[in-house]
Amino acid sequence: MILIAEKIHASRVIPPNHPRLANGGYRYNETGVLRVGETHPRKPFAFAANMLLHGSAPEQRSAAEFVAFHAAQQTAAGAAWLDLNVDECSNDPAERGTAMRLFVKIVLAASPLPLSIDATDSDVLVAGLATCHEAGRGALLNSATPFRLGALEHAARFNAGAVLLPTPHGAGVPATAEERCEVQRELLAQANAAGVETARCYLDPIVMPAAMDPRAVAMTLETVRLCREMFGPAPRIIGGVSNVSYGLPARAVVNRVFAHLFCNAGADTAILDPLLVTPADILNPDCESPGFIAALKVLEGVDEYAMDYIETYRPS
Predict the structure, then answer these.
(1) Half-sphere exposure of 295 toward its Cβ, with a 13 Å CA cutoff?
(2) Across 60-74, average pLDDT
């Protein structure tokens, strides 16, 4: 299973009781913090981006060290790619593009890994892909959809891979595995026509929160199996593993079990936090542990809307 580390995201929210908080700030090493004060930044990577864009020289150094630390930490944890997103750092598209370039340069200097560039705006995608290309480093575009087919031209231009997400504009998430795979078939054809060969395509079956729909996980896994059957081994199958636990306590417990099921269904790439979900968790989990059993009941829809799980893992 290829692990794409998800942590360097401006949307990442850190709760006040997070163990990495100390002295009012988010720790980036044993002695330093991103910010010291009475309150901490709830979105530390968005805060770091703003420091890089508008801070004093010492603040910019602190922000760069913070981003670099997390890039190196995830690399050491076994990630094969690092996913970057700066969407929530600013309302100004030009600032987001500048922030993406800064993040990419910092992370490329801190880690030898290729980067996955995640952005809502095409211009921000291009900023990230171009910076990787200029540095001679590999990149993955995250993502192309039926209403953002132009992104495939950017992937081809910069010799990048592309995540294909089957969410038609205005139509919501396709309801069945067959519908999702048919959209993927069309996206693959569009990618090939744009010059992105199938081996550089990553099919996303769409991972939805298990607590919101007892059938969500079964549909995702069915889509993985059908995609593999329809398209063979050439395209990779990818998913945002952490999406499955959205809204639940002890999210890592659920993420580990889902990553195991996702891999067994035929997926070969997962976007997750490698500090919390390890290759051993995916390939050789303790299936008899109470946590595995409780999470499995949620994922299989036995514990509908995760009511028992929430009662067990609710913070005291």
Answers:
(1) 25
(2) 90
* Inter-CA distances, 228 with 178, 235, 267, Å: 12, 8, 8
Give me the phi and psi of 212, to 5 degrees please: -90, -25
Task: Write down how long the chain is.
Answer: 316
pLDDT band at 66 (very low <50, low <70, confident <90, very high): confident
User: How many C-beta atoms lie closer than 10 Å to residue 289's C-beta?
Assistant: 13
Structure tokens belonging to residue 26: 């988010």
Tokens of 15: 């709760």
Residue environment code for 26-61, b if the CB has 16+ CB neighbours within 10 A, otherwise e:
bbbeeeebbbeeeebbebbbbbbbbbbbeeeeebbe
Please state, as a whole number, how many other Cβ atoms lie within 10 Å of the Cβ of residue 92. Answer: 11
Tokens coding 96: 């987001």
> Letter for the amino acid at 233?
P
Residue 31: the pLDDT is 36
Instruction: Give the pLDDT confidence score for residue 200 in this predicted structure.
Output: 98
Pairing mode of beta strands 25-26, 21-22: antiparallel
Tokens for 298? 């949620």
pLDDT over 70, % of the chain? 90
Most distant pair of Cα atoms in the chain: their distance = 55
Residue spans of the domains in the chain: they are: 2-18+83-313
Span 232-287, pLDDT tens digits: 999 999 999 999 999 999 999 999 999 999 999 999 999 999 999 999 999 999 99
- The answer to whether 79 and 116 have CB atoms below 8 angstroms apart is no
Tell me the pTM. Answer: 0.92
Identity of the amino acid at 38: E
User: Tokens representing 6?
Assistant: 């998800």
Q: And the tokens for 200?
A: 């550089």
Place of tokens 């999406």: 243
Q: Are 263 and 283 in contact (CB under 8 A)?
A: yes
- Of 28, 75, 73, the closest CA to residue 47 belongs to 28
The CATH code of the domain at 2-18+83-313 is: 3.20.20.20
